[in-house]
Every structure is written in C-alpha cells, then in structure tokens.
Automatic annotation (TrEMBL):
It is an enzyme of class 2 (transferase). This is diguanylate cyclase. InterPro entries: CheY-like_superfamily, Diguanylate_Cyclase, GAF-like_dom_sf, GGDEF_dom, Nucleotide_cyclase, Rev_trsase/Diguanyl_cyclase. Residues 351-480 form the GGDEF domain. It catalyses: 2 GTP = 3',3'-c-di-GMP + 2 diphosphate. Its EC number is 2.7.7.65. GO terms for cellular component: plasma membrane. Coiled coil: none annotated. The lineage of its organism: Bacteria, Pseudomonadati, Pseudomonadota, Betaproteobacteria, Burkholderiales. GO terms for molecular function: diguanylate cyclase activity. It comes from the Bacteria. PROSITE patterns: GGDEF (PS50887).
Amino acid sequence: MSQQLEDSTRQVGLFLNPAASRRVDFQAACGRQFGRLFVAEDATQAVHVLAHQQVDLLIIDLECFDRGLDLAAIGSLVAQRHGLPVLLVCRFDAAGWLADLMAFGPLDYLLGPLNDAELNERLATYAPSATADGLGQPGLAALRSCFQQAVIEADDETDLAARACAALCGWPGVVYAAMFQLSDANPPELTLAAQHQHAPVQIDLAALLAQSPLRRGFPGLIAAFTGEFACLDALDKADDPGLAAALGRIGAAMVVGVPILARGPGAPLGSLCLMFGRAAALSRDDLSTLADLAQLAGFGLRMFDTRRDGEMLLARLTDIAITDALTGVSNRRRGEAVLEQEIKRARRYHAPLALIAIDVDHFNAINDRYGHPCGDAALRIVAEITHGQLRTSDLLARTGGDQFQVVATHTNAIDALTMAEKIRAAIAATAFPGCDRLTVSLAVAQVAGEESADALMLRVNAALARAKRAGRNCVELAMQ
Ligand SMILES: Nc1nc2c(ncn2[C@@H]2O[C@H](COP(=O)(O)OP(=O)(O)OP(=O)(O)O)[C@@H](O)[C@H]2O)c(=O)[nH]1
C-alpha cells in the first residue's frame, strides 16, 4: 500500500488494482487529480485504508482481477464504503462484472479501453470544484445510478427505454425525455421507443414529428442519424411554429439529442432526447454524463440483441436436435421423449393413449430397384401423407430407416385403428413419383394401466411383425 502526498485541500483517492505496473501507470496518468492518492493491491488493503484514512473517491480497476476469485471480496468492499463514491474501471468485454458488483451497492463506472484523457476527464468530475454548479456530482451520480438500475432491471428493450426515459426526467429542469431507436434495416427505420413527461399536458412526439417539416432537423433525430450531439436552444428558431407551439405547451424551451452510439463502426443505435424547461448552457460534466447515459443505454440495447441472438440460436439448435433431417418430422429421440411424457400424463388424468407403428413394405426392394434418392423421396412422401391424417395434438416421429410412429393422445385402441386404417389407405392410394405404388404395414396399441414405454413398444412391434406376416398393407391390433 502506498500513497502520494501533494495538497491537503484537494480530493483524496484510493486506487485498487492487483498489478504493480497498473498502479504505477495510474499514479503517473491521473495522480495530479488528487491531493493525495492511496493505492491498494487487494480488497483487504483497501478496507484497511478506508478504516484509517479520509478518502473521497474509490477507484476500482477490474483489469487483472479474477471475477470468480475476487468478486466476493470486491463486492464486500463496495458494500462497506459508507457513502464513498466508487468508480469502477472495466474493459467493455468484462462488463458482466458490473451487474454483479452493482448488487453490492450503487457505483459509477467507465467502460474501457480508455485513454488517459478520458480517465482524467471523468476523475475531474469528482473534484470538489467541479460539483459546485450544474447538477452537481451527487446529482449526477444519483442519476447514473438510477439509469444503471433501469438497464439492469429492464426485461426487454421496450422496458429499458421506458425506464431510461423515466430516469432522465429526474434530471433537474427536464420536462420530457424520449428514446429513439434506429433499426439495422436498410434503409434504417427510426422509432420512438418510449417517452416520459412531467407536464400535465401530454404530447405524442412521434405524431408531431411525422407532420413536422422540421423532422430531420429535430435534435433527437439528428443525433440518431448522424451520431452527433444536437441542441436546439430556442424553439422559435425552428422552422416549425406548430411543433414549437406543441412543445411550448409542455413547457419545453430547449431540446437536446444525445446519440446512442454503436460499439465500433456502424450507424448509431438511436438517441436520447431531453427537453428542458428553460434554455441553459450544459456544463462539460452534464455533457459527459449525458454521453455516459447514452453509452449505458447502448450497452443495454446490445445486451438484449446478444440475448435475442442467443435465444434464436438455441431455438434453432433445439429444433435441429429433435427433427429428422430427411423428412422434417420429429426424430426418434423426440418421439421417445414425447411417448414417456404422454404416458405419464395419460396415467395422471386417466386418459386413453395410443401408439401407432408404421413400417414401409419391401422398402429394401424399392431402394434396390429405383435407387436410394427415390427411396428418400418416398420416405418424405410417406411422412407427409401420414402427417396429413393426424390431429395437431398427435406426434409423428421417424423411429428408424423406413419406420415411423404416431403418439396419439386422448385416443383409445378403436379410434387408433380407424386412424391407422386411414393412413394405410391414403398411402396405398398415392402414386409415388419415380417408383411403383407403395404400401405400409401398421400396428396399434393402447397403453395399459402401469405399462412402461418399453413394454408398449415391444407389444406394438410384435403386432407389426404379425401385420408383415399377414401379408403386409394391413393394420394389426396389439392385444393386452
Ligand atoms: N432410401 C433410404 N433407405 C433407407 C434409409 N434408411 C434405411 N433405409 C433402407 O430401408 C430398408 C429397410 O428395410 P427393412 O425394413 O429391413 O425391410 P423391408 O425391405 O422394408 O421389408 P419389410 O419391412 O419386411 O416389408 C433397408 O434397405 C435400409 O437400407 C434412408 O434414409 N433412405
């Protein structure tokens, strides 16, 4: 643990990082921001400093820490800091820490990679002189914290936008806040994701802008389309008296648009739009806080994007895992799982359940005579015709080369026999392109009392063998 002594009237900082080189670099790059700067290599040392020194700002640099090993200790440090502001510095791709650590208490953060100027700029916002005017450091920290909460707690993008706008209305002087989202379609579409207003008179900004000749000159839209900060500090300067009058009715005098930038190259993701009750110059701190909030909103939007991509991929993988690639019906694994599940359900609700086994007749000969591709096409048609005879509640699975099974819920043996006969007749009546007519043999079994799926399968397969012996192209009932 070490310290740097300079000036007792300036703020006292504590910098935490396990790597000596990071601590030295921080001292060299940012030491001048502090009257006194302590450094600590682990949470225990930091707790010790906080117990014995008056510290104004705790900076935790997460680089080189291990999330699995160090989370509890750093979290407990965050929890015990007794009102002391905490600034977390962390790489963008390690931002998963943020949500974990925020559970221990409110904190501010900076996502890297950062250069010294960016770091110094943020640290300067904590200096006592910087908090004398504008929203003030406690106000900015509270707003950030509220916004962070909005991002963490949001269920989806719409919810995030609504919560973010509500948080923005906590900024003193803001009478209205909105969030625009730009789709990644070509050309991109801009939508008003959410709006929130204090004023008793309500406006529909989307409708107002749709009719306004100002449209593209409106700060929220400029910011979303160009990625630049935009401000209209006198509504009567806008070439649209109608819009100025409507915004005037909610007490708006100045409109600010802050872009939500994409990470890396690419169009912005949208913008935050704030309307203030009176025109006033925004301080550097205000501007950098607004940019931070927009960055946080972008972070939230990207999180939902990533989550959606993950969910779609998972759904696709699940689909692949349960589908037979040749015919598109369920595969054997899915067929077995559904049979097990339906047997339990039938037992619980005392409902009848039937299993129909289907096997193509002399399929070997079809392959031999007409070729494998023709055989494949025939299997697809058998699956299609069979599927066409079923109710949506029945499940068709391909259980082997030329074998299928139907799990028919709420169906007794008699009804299953009728179903099986319809399937048999439909296939026998179909012309299979490229080969002869084709027939199938079927067997039907109704699940009995405590019968297991394996026992049921044995029974139905035995009946299927009888159908084959009986000359094929027929249906056999499996007796209990
Ligand atoms: N074209 C094609 N053939 C397959 C596929 N999977 C298995 N087979 C063939 O399907 C045939 C199944 O024949 P079996 O069920 O044993 O007998 P069968 O000729 O149908 O005679 P029976 O069932 O007694 O009427 C075998 O020749 C397998 O090689 C597939 O995906 N495509």
